[in-house]
Amino acid sequence: MTDTEKSATKEKSYDGFTEEERAAMKERAQELKKAPRKKSSKADGEADVLAKIAEMPEADKALAERIHAIVKEHAPELTPKTWYGMPAYARDGKNIVFFQSSHKFKARYATLGFEENAQLDDGAMWPTSFALTEITPETEARIVELIKKALS
């Protein structure tokens, strides 16, 4: 077997992280390196989030821009930041909600997700992420409801 064939076989059989996952981990490492050097302000975080949103494909960009506006309007106490290269919103440094572009991990839909600090508890089982393909008035009302519950 030639070196080229060995390399191709190795790449095809690799069971570790995908290229997209490794890229997200590198982004997270950069975020962590940036944090200790300076105290991030809400404005710095918002600029970072808006820059990430601007990089998204149009369909996801529209969703992310609307999520950003909803969070700013209904949860102004949350601080925008990036998290693994995704727009996220935190309270006291702890992530509450994030938006994941479908493009990020080559998924068929974008995701609106909530971290463990979100107070969405409902019995013994509850959803923590939601597939998001468009934001209708009904969807927006549900997102607002979830964000308010997450902060309660």
What do these coordinates show?
The model has no long low-confidence stretch (mean pLDDT 88). Helix 4 crosses helix 5 (137-151). The radius of gyration is 18 Å and the shape is globular. The chain has 152 residues and is of the alpha+beta class. Helix content is 49%, strand content 18%. A hairpin with a 2-residue loop joins strand 1 and strand 2. Strands 1-2-3-4-5 form a 5-stranded antiparallel sheet.
Give the structure's gist in a few sentences:
By secondary structure, the protein is α+β, with helices and mostly antiparallel strands.
Question: Which SSEs are present, and which pair or pack?
Answer:
Layout: H1 3-13, H2 19-37, H3 42-54, H4 58-74, E1 79-83, E2 86-91, E3 94-100, E4 110-114, E5 129-132, H5 137-151
Helix pairs in contact: 4-5
